[in-house]
Structures are given as structure tokens and as C-alpha cells.
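Sequence and structure are kept together here, with a separate record for every protein. An example record follows, reproduced without changes.
>
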Amino acid sequence: MPPPPPQIIRVVDLETTGPAPPAHGVCEIGWQDVALGADGRWDLQGEGGARLVNPGRPIPPVTQAIHHILDEQVANEPLWHDVARAVLDPWPRRVALAAHRADYEMKFCTPALTHNAQWICTWKCALRLWPDSPSFSNQVLRYWRKPEGMEHERGLPAHRAFPDSYVTAFHLRDMLNEAGVAQLIEWSNLPGLLPAVRQGPDRGKNWHEISDESLAVQLGDRDVDVRFSAETELARRRGGGAVGRQTPQGRLFED
């Protein structure tokens, strides 16, 4: 009997004309697979890839200034619905899809195109696993963490679909080896748990350092991640868990 196909998680990254479909469209998709090895460890697999997509509308100068994709480069490329399914639902069947700030990709990669795939958001998982990072962008995590095995030039230029998916794949690999698939999916299905207060007079403080009055203000914030983090801190104060950066002493109690 041939061995079963490996478990695959496909990391994807999109370059688009803007953030809000259907008003905006995809102009490039990139991907890089991460696979579970026979030794029980996850690692990058294959060369990955990218392809340009005709977004069906002009690319605004504001977004061209980010990814530098020109209208004439995509004019003769296939449309998104002719490209998406083959990339998002490959064979061997992937366990999940992943992206950095996956909520953005999920707006374009609908359940019909992904065969109802589960998603891992490496941004949300980084908040949980690496709360001491100075920032949680894909590129800051890259230079703060310096993932083993990453080829510097292969991850450039930033803000293009393949290089960004390649960089994200290294974050995902290390997250999977630290926490596992089920835990990453669970975290990804919740709002982001911010390790510190994002704005206001308490900006940069750990949640446990702010007053009850300040916490009440954060509970009314319009941002879902801020509210969720404040609600989690409120639950901690009422005896229901922890939020924010752990102290070394706290980690000892967990171990």
C-alpha cells in the first residue's frame, strides 16, 4: 500500500485592488505549503507559487503603490473565479488554509471557493504565542524571530503574494510545532487577544496594569479585538483566566 498523502496546510496571500469585495478584486494570489513530516514535525513543503489575476477593474494608484502591480500586467490574466478553487482547494486535500490576518483573505476566499476550509490566522496566533514581539506584522515578526531556514531574498519583495506567503509559512511552521493544529484553529476563530493596550493614555501597558475605570472605557471600544481583550481581562479580574504578557513566575506555575 502506498503511504497516505501528508497533511498539508496551505498558506495563502492576496494582493488586491482594495479591502472590500465585491467593490474590489484580487490581482495576485501566492501560496506556500506546510506539511506534517513522518517525524511528527511540521515544515515547508514544495516550491509554492503565485499567479496574477485579472481583478476586473482598474487597480487604484493607492494600492499600486503598495504592491506595484500594473493594470497592463493583469489585463490578459484569468479572472478570480477561474483561478481560486485550484489554488485554495488543492489535492492532496489540505487540512486548513492559513494567512497572516486571515480575516482579510477570507473576504475574497469564500467557503464556496475553499470547500468550507478551516482557517488559521498567524496574526491572532502570534499574539498568543509571542506576546513580547515589538509588533505583530508579518515582516516585523520575520526580523524579530529570524526563523530558521528562511532564505532572505526568497521572502522579498514584501507586499507581493508569494514572498509574503513564504514568510508567513515559517511563522506557521513554528506555531504548529509549538501549539498544534487544533489550538491554532481555536484561537483563529476568536477575535485577537491583544497582549497590551493598543491606544489611549494606557497605551503599551499590560491589561492587568490598568484601572477598572480605564478597562471600562476599553470595553466600549468599536474594535472587536480591543473589546475581546478587555472582556478577557475583566473575566480574569473576576477569577476566570489570564490575559496579556505572562511574567516568568506565571510561566513557572504553568510548567
